[in-house]
Specification:
By secondary structure, this protein is mainly α. The protein has one domain. Helix 1 packs antiparallel against helix 2. The longest helix has 27 residues.
Length: 56
C-alpha cells in the first residue's frame, strides 16, 4: 500500500510540474505512465488476494 501511495504522489507531482513548466510536457506523460503502473500494481495484488481461499 505504501508503494502505491508513493507512486501516486510521484505521478501527481510530475503531472503538476509538467503542466506548470513550459516545455516539460513529457513530465506529464511520465506522470500518467506512473499512475497507470500504480493502478496496475494494485489490480494485480488485489486479484491475487481474491483467488486465495482458506483450505478446510
Amino acid at each position: 500500500m505504501v508503494l502505491f501511495l508513493l507512486l501516486v504522489l510521484i505521478a501527481v507531482i510530475l503531472g503538476i510540474v509538467g503542466v506548470a513548466a513550459s516545455g516539460l510536457g513529457y513530465l506529464l506523460a511520465i506522470g500518467v505512465a506512473v499512475l497507470v503502473a500504480a493502478l496496475a500494481l494494485v489490480a494485480v495484488r488485489w486479484s491475487r488476494r481474491v483467488g486465495r481461499r482458506p483450505i478446510r
